Amino acid sequence: MDFHPDTERRDLIAEAFSRPLDALLPLARLHRTDAEEPWDALAELGIFGVAADPEIGGVGLGPAEEALLAMELGRRLAGPQVLATLMAVYCAPEDARAQIVTGEARVAPAVLARDGSLCVIDGGDAEWLLVRRDGTAALIAASTLSGRTALDDAHWTAPLTIGASAGSDLAWAGDKATLRMRLIEAAALSGVAACASEMAVAYAGLREQFGHPIGAFQAVKHHCANMAMAAMAARDATTFAAIAIEQDRADAAFQVEAALLLAIDAALGNARRNVQVHGGIGFSEEADPHLVVKRAHLLVEAAGGADAAAERVARAAPPMLREA
Predict the structure, then answer these.
(1) How do residues 82-123 score in pLDDT, each as one tens digit?
(2) How many alpha carbons fall within 13 Å on the CB side of residue 177?
(3) DSSP E strands: which ranges in the chain?
């Protein structure tokens, strides 16, 4: 039985995606107020259709490769539109699927509140909205919404009045599609955790105090070690869940939900510790740690939050674990 992607599959993602993404998505881009993701270049890499059918322009890889790619996107703090477009293929109508897979149509994430209003994140020029509710998702055309209230150039709210009950007759994704989207979210969050860990370690080796790098001091050293372990645990749980999906194992849903919960904890915890390792400058806008904090919280909320993830883990747990 396989438990994680083998070296060949990891090398494939590193060669085909990781190295190009280093140049396309440097963290420095996020300090510019007018920063936009290099959409056309990402589409040419095949980012949005890595696991989609080649007949509609996809690459045709499996859940493990898709998870490894999402980790690399998370590590580079990829924008909300990028991750939403990657996930949208699992709930897109057939007539829109090819355009989404090839990057011709953009998808923005939107959270459906209990009062029936939508909060659209990074809406910009997105043609579709990936509406999230209780951890699942549905896709609607942005043009169908009216009465928008702009929060800024990229974010806005609008009432969703479809059917008698807001959002009741949207085509919500099925269990298998939802599982794949949660796997992507777990992978992206584990990438965010890795980003925070790597950032803290780099700074701890650079910043000196009392004539020594601060990483030599026990308190900082322990922070960095705990961050590395949290990121590694989230990564391994996610790749293990991806293999469980590939093998169609009975516990696949539990493994994905557990991986997402672990990744949420790792991303939020590492983001906080990264600020602490940076000290006073960690709170400043000129430094990078606040970028990680914001992205971690945004992805967690889009995924439905930690409490909902914990409840799903409890429901999906095998009987022997529930009894224990």
Answers:
(1) 999 999 999 998 888 999 999 999 999 998 877 778 888 888
(2) 17
(3) 107-112, 117-120, 128-133, 136-141, 149-150, 156-159, 208-209, 212-213
